[in-house]
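Example 3.2
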Amino acid sequence: ESSGARVSVEKIPGGFHARLDYPSYELGFEVEVKLYDDGSITAYIPENSIYENAENKKIGNIYLFPLLGNTKLGEVDGYMFVPDGNGALIYLIRKADLIRDMSRRCMAVM
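Structure, written as tokens:
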């Protein structure tokens, strides 16, 4: 792989378990991903699976599925529902369609 990662994957009930090792960085971790009948997904990184053996290289962040939910805007009608907190609807339209020049005077009352 271009990242230099060694990846081993095994199928488990409802998903998969993967081990990712980066030998040149002397670090790695495991992740377990499961899909459920209701459409939900969980991804779990056991804390004790994370290792950092190099003195000058440490893991700052781990991003799992950073492109999950991406779309080619304008090619698909509809929206995505984000069920976090109060929830949100993300309409699948290009941002350029939403941008309009606007200039208004503003007055503050103190």
